[in-house]
Structures are given as structure tokens and as C-alpha cells.
UniProtKB/TrEMBL annotation:
Span of domain X8: 429-511
Claim: Isomerase is one of the keywords in the record: no
Record protein name field: glucan endo-1,3-beta-D-glucosidase
Keyword line: Cell membrane, Disulfide bond, Glycoprotein, Glycosidase, GPI-anchor, Hydrolase, Lipoprotein, Membrane, Plant defense, Signal
KW Zinc-finger (keyword) present: no
Amino acid sequence: MPNPTIILDLSFSSFSTSTRPEATRWQISTRSMVEDMADLDDEVTFVRCVAMVLWSPKASRMPQNRWHLATTVLLLLATYAHKAGGVGVNWGTAASHPLPPPEVVELLKSNNFSKVKLLDADPLVLEALSGSNIGVTVGIPNALLRGLNSSLRAAQSWVHDNVTRYLSSGHSGVRIEYVAVGDEPFLQSYGEQFHPFVIGAAANIQTALRRANLESTVKVVVPCSFDAFLSESGLPSKGHFRADINRTMIQLLTFLTKHGSPFFVTISPFLSLQQSKNISLDFALFKETAKPHNDSRRTYKNCFDLSYDTLVAALSTIGFSRIDIVVAQIGWPTDGAANATSAIAETFIKGLMEHLSSGVGTPLRPKNPPSETYILSLLDEDQRSIAAGSFERHWGLFTFDGQAKYRIDFGEGLRNLVNAQNVEYLPMKWCVLNNNKDLSNATASALEACSAADCTALSPGGSCSNISWPGNVSYAFNSYYQQHDQSADSCDFGGLGLITTVDPSVDKCRFPVELRTSYSRSLQKASLVRTMMFLVAAILVT
């Protein structure tokens, strides 16, 4: 978005035809007020400024000021929208014991999240979002892409079941803004298994939305992974898309441009830090002490700008330099790896929010930050794949039970997030190693427990990596015990397990107690059943 002050100067030079001193003074004072709006973060102050313009006595007395009045109000609105920005959050449900969706929606509302991105279209989640006025991105799992690519009827059925039915309830419905076709289907580790189906699936969903008279309100997007683009030299100006997806990206971007959809992409300074020796922690965290990176006459002071402009260059290389960009995922994990802590995550999110709200943009897109940004993620998820690392289960701003990990600044100053309320836990019981038994098989039992539970906190650099044997065995036992709803036989381990009511947590190593929820595993099971039913239906109608 262009700088509001520049637009204002142009507007007033165009409309300032009056030679009357009174008119000129009014125009100048109004312009000055709008320029001051660039520093406003207070909604009340914003409304007062608009009122000052609308009810200005001089404005109403002089007809020639109507142009200035209209222009100024529009600029005030544009400036405030620019300052407010669009920050949402990803809500994943890959948890063994997820918080009930109604409680999660209350968590979103309590913390003023106005947008949420989902990885699927779970009915329980969408029903909970009904009437919330939260902007929603519904997702289509990768497993459905083949069927949607081959069958328009399947796409129409999906749109009817997952979009139309939730929009048709008026004010009590769901404010669906995007349909995300696939979940990073171009991720390099997936190979080419989804590549042939993405464009066709997106086109069929677009057609289905058009036939449902929804194409103007619901946009089709395809979330792209952080490894879809690169620069071997490390210079953003040399950015390009991977060779194996370059042709597909041209097709995708042509499709998105035709239908007025933005480009959804993951930006991951944490993964850049993990994978590149040239990225320092300070550079990833927006620290002023970071050594800058230079690219010709452009200077990069943080990893976000470096990655973002690498994408901008890649887009420009194939002729799409002006497409809107939405950062679909960006965050910092708090456990499971070195540099994955709550303190570092707080520093990163604080730096990110300040950078976005400043509106400075990047060297290749000055004054033009991403149109929307979605933080990864709302909650920790103990069932997420850890193929990329144990940290994958710890992206949440909140722990699995909805407790805030750190403070955050959404333009209102650094403040505490509001925790989930009325959370119901299983009894305060834990499973630990019985030291009075023969412990020769304890390590083997712990490894077996971890294969069916979440032991990522024990990973090198994790919050429990410093507890020694046999404490780490107890952690493994308890993780298995909690995930199996504290059933007595889940704390057996050949007689090595012992149930206790004494909390074995040590320092920062928390031995969790799981949630008491009727939603345990139900969201994942329901998602799997829906996927299988859809695949069968797609085969039948093909």
C-alpha cells in the first residue's frame, strides 16, 4: 500500500484550487492531522479524528471543501486500516486431547484475533466459529487433491458441504474468506505426488464457488512452503522458484492473478536459522545488533525481509511482481530444539509485530508489507509430524491446554494473553518409574512409550533435555499414561510404572496432565472418516 502521506499530498495538490486563505488554512490543518494519523494506534483516537473532520464548521460552510472532506476521510480510513494490518493465527487440531472448539473460539475472541486459518473444514470447528465474525480460511487436505482435480462434481459437493452451508446462516454463519487448496502441496519432502493435481483442483473449486455465487467473497488460494523458492547465493535479488515446480508456479500465479487471489506462503526465520550458517540468531530475531546482509545497494537487517524479498524476486522473475502476498505461516517454536524457548519466541513475535505495524515493508517492496499475516500457531499439537524436528509440536502461542507462554504486542503494547477459561483436566495423577523395581529394562520401556506418545521435550535443547536418568524415563512413562487417558494398564510397563499424586515436574520440565474432553481424538478421527468418505465419493462420480 502506498504511503498515506504521499497520497494525501497528491490529493490536495490536485484539489487545492481555491485561492481563499481560509480554505487553504483548513486544507493545511486537515492535512497535518492526517499526517499525524500515521502514528495512531488507538481506535478511539481514530474515531475522534474522523469526527473532527466530519463536523468541522469550516468544512460545512465552504462547499469547495467537500472534495477535501471526502478525500481526508477516505485517507483516514486507509491509514487506520494500514496501521491495523491483518494478523491472524493458524488453528491446527493435530492433538490427542484438543481443547473443545467452543473454548478455542472464546480464546480467539478474548485475545482479539480477527482471522484464523484452518488446515481442514472440520464441522465441529466451523460450527463453533458460527456467529463469531472471525475471518476464516478453510483448508482442503492434500489427500483430497486428486479427487477434486478429476471431478467438478466432487468440488461442488465439497464447496456445498464445507462453505455454502456455513455461509447461508446470515449473521449466525461463518465468515469464510478463503479456501486453501492443499496444505503446502509443493513441500520438497513430498516429492511430486501432489503436483499434477493442484491447479486442476483449484480450478474446480473456483468453478464451484462461481456456480454458488461466492467467487466475489471467497477466494481460492494455494499455500506454498518456505522451500518453494530459494537463492543459492543467499542474495534476495537472485531468488527463484525450484526448478521442479517453476512451470506449475507460473500456472498457479496466472490462476491467482486472474481471480484476484493473493499468494499464500510460509516464511520461516526459525528454519532459516536451523539450516543456514549465514543466519545469526540476532538476525532472525529483528535485533538491532545483528550484522546486516547486503545485496547490491540494498541492506537487509533481518531474516524476514531477506526471505520475503527472495520470494518477491522469484515472483518477478516469472512475471508476477505485483501480486499480493499473504504470509500464511510464520512463528517460533518454544520447545524441542536449541533456540526454541518461550523467551526467544517472545522476542521474535515482538520484533515481527513491530516490523509489520511500522508499514516500512522490505527493500524490494517498500511501504508494502504483506496484506495479511498468520502466526503459527495458536496451540501446541502433540500429534503433528516431527519429520522436520521435534520442535514441530511446539509452535503454539499457547500450550495444549490454552495457557499463554509469553506476552505479545498486537499494536496495543506488550500485554499478557488471556488464557483459556474453565479448562477441565484429568485427575492430578502422574505415572513415574518405580525405583524399587529391577530397572534393567527401564530404558527400553521408555523408548517403547515414546514411540506411542509425545516425548519431544526430551529432545536435545528441549525443556526436559537436562533431566537425567531415571527422570527422563518417568517423563516417557507419564506422556504415554496421559495420552491414554490415565488408564491403569497404561502405567504398567512390565511392573516398572507407579501412579503418584505428587507432581514430578522439575524446574522448566513440566510433566503434563491431559485434558478431560469428549473431543479426545475425535477431531482427528472425524477428519480421517470425512477424507475417506470423500475419496470414495470422488471415485464413484468420476
